[in-house]
Design brief:
alpha+beta, Creatine Amidinohydrolase, 4-stranded antiparallel β-sheet, 4 helices, 28% helix, metal-binding, metal ion binding, Pept_M24A_MAP1, hydrolase, initiator methionyl aminopeptidase activity
């Protein structure tokens, strides 16, 4: 299903996106060495409830997971990159943490992810990997405009990741979003320009470049959800929900400091 939002729905999408951005920034500001992943999940649940919103994850049970997910946020640490299930783990100095959050408010969903380093110890290679996914995300957003094709966005993202030297996995990528979290069209993190669905004003897309330092192969944890690099290498993931407008792309999930 591909949804094209009307002006009222787009305004509601802006409100949802702003909420997701605020929650992610609040969580990032709270996280410190010693923070438990289960505490992050509890904080997220409280923030969503206080806003009168709903989690897109608690009851989420797609074919690729062992659902329902049962938590309010994805918390991926170090070699985990996608669908990180919160568990009893206290973050250590130098851990690379990804928070991935999807929320629905007034019937419209928004989805965003941020990777960052916990504490004071920052490995240069971790910083470079996070920055590469952020550059790739900016490139994908810059390519998004009415009349562009999904392949144009995929190519822009993939070019940045490839030039940075990272293998690219095409199993999971960006997606349409609207009244539900995951919709068509799929946006791969690499592709050929001029191919795919033609973008139209009112379309919402969640773009999400992610990489693993030295592999494109994933393995799944025993929890049936958490996806890790097959080599144990560290990972990074950046995501924003955008709206296609007559003027280009509007980022809905900005995180204000």
């Amino acid at each position: 299903m591909i949804e094209i939002l009307n002006p009222d729905e787009l305004n509601r999408a802006r409100a949802t996106g702003a909420l997701v951005g605020r929650i992610l920034q609040t969580l990032k500001d709270r996280v410190a060495v010693g923070t438990n992943l289960l505490d992050i999940d509890r904080w997220t649940a409280a923030l969503i409830t206080e806003a009168g919103a709903e989690s897109c994850y608690v009851d989420y049970a797609p074919s690729f997971g062992r659902g329902p997910f049962g938590h309010y946020i994805c918390t991926a640490v170090n070699d985990a990159v996608l669908h990180g299930m919160p568990h009893d783990y206290a973050l250590a100095d130098g851990d690379l943490l990804t928070l991935d959050l999807a929320v629905s408010l007034d019937g419209i969903a928004a989805d965003s992810a941020v990777s960052f380093i916990v504490g004071e110890t920052q490995r240069p290679e971790d910083v470079a990997m996070i920055e590469a996914t952020e550059r790739a995300l900016r490139a994908g957003i810059a390519a998004a405009r009415p009349g562009a094709r999904t392949g144009d966005l995929a190519h822009a993202i993939g070019t940045v990741l490839d030039e940075a030297g990272y293998p690219i996995n095409l199993e999971f990528g960006g997606h349409g979003i609207g009244s539900t979290m995951h919709q068509d069209p799929h946006i791969s993190n690499d592709g050929r320009p001029g191919r795919g669905y033609k973008l139209r004003p009112g379309l919402l897309l969640a773009l999400e470049p992610w990489v693993m330092a030295d592999t494109d192969e994933l393995v799944t944890d025993a929890d049936g959800w958490t996806l890790r690099s097959a080599t144990g290498a560290r990972t990074a993931h950046s995501e924003h929900t955008i709206a296609i407008t007559a003027d280009g792309a509007e980022i809905l999930t900005l995180r204000a400091p």
